[in-house]
Amino acid sequence: MRGKRYLAVTVLAWLTIIVLGWYFVYDISRMERAEAQHKEELAAIGAVLYAQNCVVCHGPLGEGVVGPPLNVESFRGDPTENTEVYDLIHRTIVHGRPGTTDPLWVRLDNGMWASYTAMPAWGAEAGGSMNDQQTAALTYFIMMGDWNRVGRYIPAPTPWIDSETGEVLWHLMPDAQGIPSEASQRGKEIFVNKACISCHTLGQVGGFVGPDLTKVGAWGLDEEFLKEWIKDPPSVVERAPRYWSNYGGPYQFPVRAVHGRDASIDETVPDRIGEMVEGAAGQDIDQPQMAGGAVGPEFPIPNTQSLPPTTMPALGLTDEEIEDLVYYLLNLK
After folding, report:
1. CB 233 within 8 A of CB 199
2. What is the C-alpha separation between 265 and 269, in angstroms, rounded?
3. Are strands 205-206 and 105-107 parallel, antiparallel or unpaired?
4. Looking at residues 111-119, what average pLDDT do you find?
5. How many CB atoms lie within 10 A of CB 304?
6. Measured torsion, CA atoms of residues 311, 316, 319, 325, in degrees rounded to the nearest 10
7. If residue 243 lies in a helix (H) or strand (E), which one and from where to where?
8. Which end of the chain is more exposed for a tag (fewer CB within 10 A), N or C?
9. Distant-in-sequence contacts of 149-154, Cβ < 8 A, 24+ apart
């Protein structure tokens, strides 16, 4: 009798151990699934935020144009494991990066372009429009999200055709400066008829897939580059900006944004790149002058990783149409 009781106790003990072990394993698996689902939900929210706020500078597939590319291998990973990458991206989203309010490109001595364009601060703690959960979600998307999901969330273009009359709203598009009105109108017509306006904003109308081109003539682009870009974008993508002010490697000399007064910088410091800027120690830094009056580094410019392919297609413009369009665009300031 005692032996049977001992056997029963032993069996119950082992059953308890097995049940508890199974529950422990199941519970860990359940928590892992819940954590993975939470990450995916954050990344999905981030995809929407990216489409609504970041596409015009960083591209619908994170390929970068005005801002640096984000769809790169060095940024991918699990945010909870790759904490250094997470902190870098999140800190940049929250606080932004210095530069000029309007895009400014400079061709460097090695033939590449650098962008001195500021990135605004998006975090509420830095005066931006996103709360902590939103900036975290955007970071999660950049690190682990599906870039192919962005396109479905990009806002619809602002209409450039009057819904009642069917006429094109030419007056909502800017006239170029210093060129005949006929040439300006010709540029607008090509921009509309060749569907450039479906992706790019021009004045008060147009799309939000590519950069806003309302002031593209003030960016510093040269005629040859812009013509090549329009004619065959994929062939010149490697000559798009590869360096950004205060981004990547040693290319980090001081640059001040021009959108309002920065209380952390004395108001006597010049606003525009190309002039003297004040260093962190209060010393003026005399940078070597480069094309367009902008400044550049005295040290060797490092190589960078290859850029993702551009999403801008070749639109099949004739050489004459490209000539007329570029003439118009380069005089938008």
Report:
1. no
2. 7
3. unpaired
4. 81
5. 16
6. -60
7. strand 243-244
8. N
9. 149/44, 149/47, 150/47, 150/50, 150/51, 150/55, 150/60, 150/61, 150/62, 151/51, 151/60, 152/51, 153/47, 153/48, 153/50, 153/51, 153/52, 154/51, 154/52, 154/55, 154/60, 154/208, 154/209
What are the residues whose beta carbons fall under 8 Å from the beta carbon of 56, sequence distance 6 or more? 66, 201, 208, 209, 210, 211, 212
Q: Which residues pair with 284 in a beta bridge?
A: 278
Side-chain half-sphere CA neighbours of 48 within 13 A = 8
pLDDT in tens, 14-54: 666 665 565 565 556 667 788 889 999 999 999 999 999 99
Give yes or no for a contact between 95 and 126, defined as CB atoms under 8 angstroms apart: yes
What single letter denotes the amino acid at residue 19?
Answer: V
The percent helix, strand, coil of the chain (3-state, each to 5) is 45, 10, 45
Q: Enter the DSSP assignment of 61.
A: T
Angle at 131 between CA 129 and CA 133, to 5 degrees: 140
Q: Identify the pLDDT of residue 177.
A: 94
Contact of 152 with 55, CB cutoff 8 Å: no
Q: List pLDDT tens digits, range 149-198.
A: 999 999 999 999 999 999 999 999 999 999 999 999 999 999 999 999 99
And the tokens for 292? 């367009």
**What is the C-alpha separation between 128 and 246, in angstroms, rounded?**
20
Any bridge partners for residue 117, and if so which?
A: 100
| Cβ-contact 57, 67 below 8 angstroms | yes
Q: Output DSSP code: residue 306.
A: P
Length of the chain: 333
Mean pLDDT of the residues in the chain = 78
- 293-305: per-residue pLDDT in tens? 334 444 344 445 5
The pLDDT score that the predictor gives to residue 106 is 82
Strand (E) or helix (H) holding 113:
strand 113-115
Give the pair of three-digit tokens for residue 295: 């400044």
Stretch 65-90: mean pLDDT, rounded?
A: 91
Pairwise CA distance, residues 155 & 33, whole Å: 32
